[in-house]
Specification:
Layout (H helix, E strand, L loop, with lengths): L1 H26 L3 H44 L3 H10 L2 H6 L1 H29 L2 H8 L11 H11 L6 H8 L10 H11 L3 H21 L4 H4 L2 H12 L2 H15 L1
Protein name: Urea transporter
Membrane topology: Multi-pass membrane protein
Main location: membrane
Length: 256
C-alpha cells in the first residue's frame, strides 16, 4: 500500500510539474510570469501565496527535524533547538546563494554516504531484510490491499507537488536550446524539473525499508516514524553507540 501510494503520487507530481518546468526552461520565465499568463494577475497572487505557504511549512518541518535531532542526541530542549535551527542558517544566507551552493556541493558526497551507507550495509549483510520489507503487511487490522492506505499515502506525498516552484528558480536560467544542445537541455529540464520526484520517491521508499527493519527489531511505532531515531537505530546496528549518535546528528545537520 505504501509503495503503491508513493509511486502513484510520484507519477502525478511528475505529470503536473512538467508543463511549468518546460515553460521556465524554454522561455526563461519565473513562476510568477508563468502563473500570471495562465491564471491572470489575481490568479498569480494566489498561486504564489500557495508556494510561499509551502516554503514556510517546509522550512518549519526541516527546522523541527533538526531540533528533534538536537533533543534526542544532545538533550537540548526542543524550543532551544528551534531557535538554533533558525539562527544557524543566517550566516551562509547573509553571505549569499553562492556560498549555499558551494556548501551543498561540498557536502553532497558526505550526505550520500550517510544516507545510503546503512541501506547498503543492511542489504549486503542480511539480504533477508529485503524479503521482509516486501512481505511486510503492517498491523493485523491493515493486512491486505486497501484503497484507504494508498490514498492516505498519496495525500501526504502530494504535498510535495509545489516543490516544482523551487526547481523553476534554477530552470529559468537554462541556456536557449539550439540544434546542438536541444537534447541536453530537454534531458536536464526533465531531470532538474519534474524528475526531482524520482529522487524523492527513492528516499521515501528507503525510509520505509529502514522503518520496517527497525520495527521488526523492536522499535516502537512512535519512534520508527521519526527520521532521527530511524538513523540512530540503523547506525547502532553498524557501529558503537557513540559513533551512531554522532553520525545521526551529522546527517540531520547536513540534510537540513
Amino acid at each position: 500500500n505504501g509503495i503503491t501510494g508513493v509511486l502513484l503520487a510520484g507519477l502525478l507530481i511528475f505529470t503536473f510539474s512538467f508543463p511549468p518546468a518546460y515553460c521556465a526552461a524554454y522561455y526563461n520565465i519565473d513562476l510568477d510570469l508563468i502563473s500570471r499568463g495562465s491564471f491572470g494577475y489575481y490568479g498569480s497572487i494566489l498561486t504564489n501565496l500557495n508556494f510561499v505557504l509551502f516554503t514556510i511549512i517546509l522550512f518549519a518541518l526541516e527546522g523541527s527535524i533538526m531540533a528533534q535531532g538536537f533533543y534526542v542526541i544532545i538533550g537540548i530542549p526542543l524550543w532551544i533547538g528551534y531557535v538554533i535551527s533558525a539562527l544557524i542558517v543566517f550566516p551562509p544566507v547573509l553571505i549569499g546563494m553562492k556560498t549555499l551552493a558551494k556548501l551543498q556541493t561540498y557536502t553532497t558526497p558526505l550526505w550520500l554516504i550517510l544516507m545510503c551507507g546503512p541501506l547498503i550495509y543492511l542489504v549486503v549483510t542480511d539480504f533477508d531484510t529485503v524479503d521482509y520489507f516486501l512481505d511486510f503487511e503492517g498491523a493485523p487490522e491493515n493486512i491486505g490491499k486497501s484503497s484507504s492506505p494508498v490514498l492516505l499515502t498519496m495525500g501526504i506525498c502530494l504535498a510535495l507537488m509545489t516543490q516544482i516552484a523551487e526547481q523553476i528558480d534554477y530552470l529559468r536560467c537554462m541556456p536557449k536550446p539550439t540544434a546542438k544542445i536541444s537534447k541536453s537541455v530537454l534531458f536536464w529540464t526533465v531531470l532538474g524539473g519534474p524528475g526531482w520526484i524520482i529522487f524523492g520517491i527513492t528516499k521515501q521508499i528507503i525510509g520505509m525499508f529502514i522503518g520496517t527493519y527497525l520495527f521488526n527489531n523492536g522499535m516502537s511505532t512512535e519512534d520508527v516514524v521519526q527520521p532521527v531515531r530511524q538513523f540512530i537505530g540503523i547506525y547502532k546496528v553498524m557501529l558503537p553507540d557513540f559513533f551512531a549518535y554522532f553520525l545521526a546528528l551529522l546527517l540531520v545537520v547536513v540534510s537540513q
